[in-house]
C-alpha cells in the first residue's frame, strides 16, 4: 500500500501555472471546476489514498478534461504510473500538456506512447532522472526513456532535462512528428536517439542535427521563427541532414518557441521538475 498525501492551506489558490506551448497549446484540463483537496485525512481519505499491488500491474487511469496538480514538493506518486487511454484528451498534469514533473527510479520507460495515434501532446519542463538502482546494465543508467510508437503521433518535447540515460531517449517508430525544443541530454553513456529513416523530426536548439545558419529562412517560413543552432558535445560525428521537406507536416500546428542552445543549457536544469513553477 502507498499513500498519496499533501496539504493545502484553506483559501490557497490551486491552479495551473502558465499555458502549454507546442502541439498541446490550448489544453484546458479541468478548467474552472472546483478543486478537490483535503484538510482532514479522516474525512477525505478517498481523495488522497490509493491501494495497489507492489508490482504495479495496472496504471492509474486518468479520464478526459482533468487537471492534476501537486503543491510544493509533496506530490509524489510512488510505485505507480498514470495512464491516458480510450481516447482520453484535454488533460494537464503539472508539478507531479505534462509539465514540471520529476520521474525517477523506473526499471525502464518513463513515458510511453502506445500504438494508437497520440496528437497535441506536449511534455515540458520535466526532469527525467535516469539515476536508478534498477538499471538493465547494473550501472545506474536508465535504458529506454521515451517509447514513442503511435501512428502519426504529434509530440512536442520542450525544456526537459534528461539525465543519466543509456539509450532510446527517445526511441521512435511509425510516423511520429516529434518536435524537440530546448531540451538538455546530460550524462548519456549510450545513444540518445533511436529511429529509422522515415522518422520526421526538427531538432531545434538541441543536440542532434545542428541546422546550418543558411536554413534560417526555411525555418522562418515553416515555423514562423528562425531555427536555433544546436550544441553537441562528447559525441561522435553525425550525418548532416539537409532535407527540409518535412516542414509541411508542421502546417496548422502550434510551434513551441525556442531560445538559444546556450541559454537552454544554463536555464533548463535549474527549472525542470517538481516545485520549479
UniProtKB/TrEMBL annotation:
One CC-aspect GO term:
extracellular region
Q: Which UniProt keywords apply?
A: Carbohydrate metabolism, Cell wall biogenesis/degradation, Disulfide bond, Lyase, Polysaccharide degradation, Secreted, Signal
Domain of life assignment = Eukaryota
Task: State whether keyword Nucleus applies.
Answer: no
State the top-level EC class. lyase
Q: What is its EC number?
A: 4.2.2.10
**InterPro entries this protein is in?**
Pec_lyase, Pectin_lyas_fold, Pectin_lyase_fold/virulence, PEL
Q: Which GO terms describe its molecular function?
A: pectate lyase activity; pectin lyase activity
Q: Which reaction does it catalyse?
A: Eliminative cleavage of (1->4)-alpha-D-galacturonan methyl ester to give oligosaccharides with 4-deoxy-6-O-methyl-alpha-D-galact-4-enuronosyl groups at their non-reducing ends
**Which SMART domains did the record assign?**
Amb_all
Residue ranges constituting the Pectate lyase domain according to the UniProt record: 32-214
**What subcellular compartments does it reside in?**
Secreted
Q: Which GO terms describe its biological process?
A: cell wall organization; polysaccharide catabolic process
Known function:
Pectinolytic enzymes consist of four classes of enzymes: pectin lyase, polygalacturonase, pectin methylesterase and rhamnogalacturonase. Among pectinolytic enzymes, pectin lyase is the most important in depolymerization of pectin, since it cleaves internal glycosidic bonds of highly methylated pectins.
Q: Which family does it belong to?
A: Belongs to the polysaccharide lyase 1 family.
PANTHER family per UniProt? PECTATE LYASE 18-RELATED, PECTIN LYASE A-RELATED
Instruction: Tell me the protein's name.
Output: pectin lyase
Q: Which organism is it from?
A: Aspergillus ellipticus CBS 707.79
Amino acid at each position: 500500500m502507498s499513500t498519496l498525501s499533501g496539504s493545502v492551506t484553506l483559501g490557497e489558490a490551486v491552479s495551473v501555472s502558465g499555458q502549454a506551448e507546442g502541439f498541446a497549446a490550448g489544453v484546458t484540463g479541468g478548467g474552472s471546476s472546483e478543486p478537490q483537496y483535503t484538510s482532514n485525512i479522516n474525512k477525505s481519505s478517498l481523495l488522497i489514498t490509493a491501494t495497489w499491488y507492489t508490482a504495479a500491474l495496472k496504471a492509474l487511469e486518468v479520464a478526459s478534461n482533468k487537471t492534476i496538480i501537486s503543491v510544493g514538493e509533496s506530490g509524489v506518486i510512488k510505485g505507480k504510473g498514470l495512464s491516458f487511454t480510450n481516447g482520453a484528451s484535454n488533460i494537464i498534469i503539472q508539478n507531479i500538456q505534462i509539465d514540471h514533473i520529476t520521474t525517477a527510479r523506473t526499471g525502464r520507460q518513463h513515458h510511453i506512447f502506445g500504438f494508437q495515434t497520440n496528437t497535441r501532446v506536449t511534455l515540458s519542463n520535466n526532469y527525467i532522472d535516469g539515476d536508478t538502482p534498477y538499471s538493465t546494465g547494473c550501472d545506474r543508467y536508465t535504458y529506454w526513456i521515451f517509447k514513442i510508437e503511435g501512428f502519426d503521433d504529434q509530440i512536442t518535447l520542450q525544456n526537459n532535462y534528461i539525465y543519466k540515460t543509456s539509450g532510446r531517449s527517445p526511441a521512435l517508430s511509425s510516423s511520429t512528428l516529434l518536435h524537440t525544443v530546448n531540451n538538455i541530454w546530460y550524462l548519456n553513456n549510450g545513444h540518445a536517439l533511436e529511429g529509422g529513416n522515415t522518422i520526421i523530426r526538427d531538432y531545434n536548439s538541441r543536440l542532434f542535427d545542428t541546422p546550418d545558419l543558411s536554413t534560417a529562412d526555411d525555418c522562418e517560413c515553416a515555423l514562423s521563427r528562425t531555427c536555433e543552432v544546436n550544441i553537441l558535445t562528447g559525441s561522435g560525428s553525425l550525418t548532416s541532414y539537409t532535407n527540409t521537406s518535412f516542414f509541411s507536416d508542421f502546417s496548422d500546428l502550434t510551434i513551441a518557441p525556442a531560445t538559444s542552445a546556450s541559454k537552454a543549457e544554463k536555464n533548463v536544469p535549474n527549472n525542470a521538475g517538481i516545485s520549479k513553477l
